[in-house]
Amino acid sequence: MVLRNWLAGLNRRGAGDSRRSNDRKRRRHVIGNAAESLEIRTLLSAVGTPAPTPANLVGISAGAESEWYSSTEFTVSLQSADAPVSTLNIEPGAPSVVTSIEGLNYDENATNTGFYAIPPDPHGAVGPNHVVSVVNTSIEWHTKAGVQENSQRLGKNSSTIVGSFFEPLTPANKLFDPKVIYDQISERFIVVALERQDTARGDSVNTSRILVAVSDDSNPNGTWYYLAIDGKVNFSGTDTWADYPGLAIDEEAIYITNNQFTFGASNTSMGSRLWIINKSELYSNAASPTVNIYDPSTASGLSGQSFTIQPAHVFGSAPGSTGTFLVSTNWTSGSNELVSVVRVDNPLSSPTFSNQFVSAGDLQTNNVSFPDSPQPDTSIEINTNDSRALNAVWRNDNLYLVNTIYPNSGDNASEETTHWYKINTSNLASLTMADQGDIGGEDIAADTRTFFGSIAVDSNDNIAIGFSAAGPNLYAGAYYTIHRAGSTAGSTETPTELAAGLDYYVRTFTTGSTGRNRWGDYTATVVDPLDDSFWSFNEYALTRGTASGGEDGRWGTRWGKFTASLNNQPTLTASGLAFLDSISVNMPNASNSGTLISTLISRMSPGGITDPDSGDPQGIAINGASGTSTGIWEYSTDGGSSWASIGTVNNDTARLLASDSNTLLRYVPNAGFKGTAKISFVAWDQSTGSNGGTGVTKFRAGASPFSAAYDLASISVTNSAPVLDNSGAPTLDAITANIPSVNNPGTLIDTIISRMSPGGITDSDPGADQGIAINGLGGTSTGSWEYSTDNGSSWAAVGTTGNSDARLLAADGQTRIRYVPNVGFTGSAIFAFVAWDGTSGSNGSTTAVGTRGGTTAYSSVYEYASISITNSAPVLTVTGSAYLDSIPMNVPNVLNVGTLISDLLARSGGITDPDPGALQGIAINGLGGTTNGTWEYTIDGGTSWSTIGTTGNSNARLLASNANTRIRYIPNLGFSGTVNLAFVAWDQSSGVNGGITAVGTRGGSTAFSSLYDYATLSVS
């Protein structure tokens, strides 16, 4: 990988790196010929000393894959791109993309890392619910629906490791050559990246580390376990650093391979090594999991060191004690190309290594130029590397791998061409080439080269190969093809475009673009563990931009999902008449059971869904929905036990729902909504995708699992008016006269409705809400009506009501109504109301209810509710000991301030009252001493006084117990002695302070006590 300092153009390259890539020659292992010390690439040219070569086998030397540039910051600037040289219309061959997810690109990666990087080294893995991708030098993951959940740099930027994925391992430098795989056996993601420090590049020490991260389950958003492995290996006294990793798993172990290069400017290739990690120990987060390093070339008896050994990702159980197979392709017998297959047995106990060469025939002429790929609009070509093995998998007794070759004959002669191999391993003692083939680019565009392939195999032995393609008539892009099980040997189908190149690509980070215009260096094609489909992740040329040093090439990456199963798309005949079961307004979720997809499809008549593939299951892919602002569309795949939102649906994220006995669709309307909501859908034959998942429905032709036509289905959210039976006589809680507000909590609307028996409110809509709409008030001259929607914390006036402005009050356990009577009022008050189901209007608001019944929110019939305002007479305790303040004889009036009624009562036996908060006072119904003086009272604190006058049971004087009401006696001049008065208790529920009233009838519900008492006053 290359990182670019765009500010300073700092360039720390190895010596001998200025040669153009078309001067390279392929370095091959040769049988029967003397070794030639030729370079495999121009990056670093020094060649290591091969080991002794028995049987005339010659070792290979190679340059390092990765180099670095440091930087501290970056900028992004865009420029418009030239139009593509041609527009391709490739006929269907390989299956079409059903899901496409855009990955990181040149600029976004720089945003993560703080520097630009080439090449991207795109690699990826797929789990049950996520796709995880890595590039130089970032990692990100998405849901399979394309929702990005993480994107971050892998290691250190120019100054810090904080926020990096490998932060727990404290990377000392920028990381490179990342790879990620999914362990389908243990359901975990595994990420590997390399780290190098080199004193020749200004670092303080020479170090090499292999950084490993493993997720604790199939969800990358959870916990990761980390491991750092020493990648510095000594070859006969010379230290080397690790480069270009291979990564694979089986049921026991994790396998990592690397090429090893000397530190310093020469970067001499010394060979390759294998690290085997005890998987169970690492997966349990052991403090020091077992990691062993091996030299598989020497251990298997090879004459020299293999270059770029790829471990095979194992699916199923390998035969015997085999752990995995290691493959390399840079071997020849002189005329035929050979694949070196090293079998690793007993990987965790006592590993043994045994090699076999499997002949692929004469695929290419040895020791000829391995040119780069031309591209339109520029003379600078794209680097395609060499014929090393790029990845390998083992499945169902066969070993599969892919590389790039330079054919010596046939349609692809003298053009770099992706080549795939299938080696039968059922007889471990004698491996055989079962099948192989070229993937030419002529079906894409004339003179097209294919390179940087990756291979995957599904459970039915269908092979998928992703690769890059470019040529004089084709910008560099990403493609894939398949070889179906049972199809003609060596054949593949017409490639399918994953991501077409959009412009020519030049980015070398050298003045005048004299360096290699690097691409790749590898890609990823994998099997989905959930549905056995394929995913390919690859690089393509974006429109040019972000110019620096006279270069403006930019790379992008993209995921694509496809399946190898043969399929004919279903046919949908639209009717626009399909419908879901109607629901009522405010229907509770528990009652909203939805509609089976099978039922929905059956209601498409006279339209419907057919499929030329006999036995194909049916389903729908929802690619549009209305009513999303008035409710939520939900689906269930378990018969309604659980529900999930269909989410945002369109042709990129259509919701897939199967026609079976458990898959349901429902609409959950917002409170009060009534009307219609619709979905648009296409037929889905379930040949790809999973029930409840999402799919891309914009590619609907040929073998697509989706119909070309679409249809609509609707649901009606209706309402039936509530029914009120007014055969009862509902009441509010009775209150007492003069009740303080604090003691007047009102009555819950729920309670009033419950007291309508034998009448009441019913509703044909399941789960309908209840409430009342008050359209008439009585008692407004003797008090006021108030309501509360917060259980009495605050109150507001009901106000004027009628059919045009009825007050809406919900039966929700919080809404109350009360009557606040005027002082002293006793009697009753009523209000009229109709039933309200809450489907229109809001609690506490007013609305017109002149139109009722039918589909309205209001009952046709109305009812009355009443409240009683009652009183209980006060109780006077008679003692005969009450007295007024004594006064002196001939006291001047100005000094005769009298006695508070409250003090008078305090000196008596006192008054009690069963009515909460009842007021107190006295009714004077008898006076003594009237011949010797005059009795007076004040109700304004003594500012003015009035004569009590003649009193009796027919004309008692009412005086309240408060801070301003007093009574006094004005004796005649010279009088001394004692005078008294008779009184009964008064609760102020009738009469007014200072007024006159009859008290002959007392007790019961009157305002006066049955008993009377005396109070005396002394004049001395």
The termini sit apart by: 119 Å
Strand elements, count: 71
Proportion of residues in helical segments: under 10%
CATH architecture of the largest domain, by name, is 7 Propeller
Strand proportion: 35-45%
Question: Class of the largest domain, according to the CATH hierarchy?
Answer: Mainly Beta
Protein structure class: mainly beta
What does this entry look like structurally?
There is one protein chain. The protein has 1020 residues and is mostly beta strands. It folds into four domains: 99-562, Methylamine Dehydrogenase, Chain H; 571-718, no CATH class; 723-870, Immunoglobulin-like (Sandwich), CATH 2.60.40; 875-1019, no CATH class. Helix content is 3%, strand content 41%. It contains six helices and 71 strands. The strands form 17 sheets. Strands 2, 18, 19, 20, 21, 24, 25, 26 and 27 form a nine-stranded mixed beta sheet that branches. Strands 36, 37, 40, 43, 45, 46 and 47 form a seven-stranded mixed beta sheet that branches. Strand 19 (322-332) and strand 20 (337-345) form a beta hairpin. The radius of gyration is 46 Å and the shape is elongated.
